[in-house]
Design goal:
By secondary structure, the chain is of the alpha+beta class. It has one domain. It contains four helices and three strands, in the order E-E-H-H-H-H-E. It has a three-stranded antiparallel beta sheet. The structure holds zinc ion. The site of zinc ion (ZN) has 8 residues, from loops.
Length: 92
């Protein structure tokens, strides 16, 4: 899964490191549920979305509007052009 800047075309991979950076607290040690709890507490998003974020699979696309809104609310600017015009894309 990637986020893509609609303004300049810059893209970033939304791996666990990306989410940890965005949430801004230390990453948990542990398995699947440790990460789900981490996202649930850190993002305030619904549990199915957090599970999708951990799995980082196609499931996340179903919630892309919510995830993009959260990234925008979090104030994550494009490192290239400084805008917050993100779109969630599947890896190709
Ligand atoms: Zn940009």
């Amino acid at each position: 899964m990637k986020i893509w800047c609609k303004s300049c075309g810059h893209s970033e991979t939304t791996n666990k490191d990306f989410w940890v950076k965005l949430i801004g607290v230390a990453a948990p040690i542990g398995g699947f549920w440790a990460w789900v709890t981490f996202f649930f507490a850190g993002t305030g998003l619904a549990l199915p979305i957090c599970i999708a974020m951990v799995v980082c699979g196609v499931g996340m696309l179903a919630y892309k509007d919510k995830v993009v809104k959260w990234i925008t609310d979090k104030g994550y600017n494009c490192p290239k052009c400084g805008k917050k015009d993100w779109e969630l894309l599947q890896d190709d």
